[in-house]
Amino acid sequence: MLSTLQEFGIRSEHAYAAGFVSIGLSFASWAVDFGKTKDKAQADRWGLFVGEWAPTFFALGVALKLEETTGGKKK
Hints:
Helix content is 81%, strand content 0%. With 75 residues, it is an all-alpha fold.
């Protein structure tokens, strides 16, 4: 899977950036939605849903970085 992502041109920096963007998007979606709706629970759920993407992107970034530094060679 990692080699396929690399073939599409996705690098570890892209995954790290996506992780930071998801953190910002999580906060922004909570702040904007919370200001417009009276249902605080809905705003919290949406913010948490988007916020759960960040660890996945960061883990993917680490895996891609390892793949980049080792060249995909197994020891």
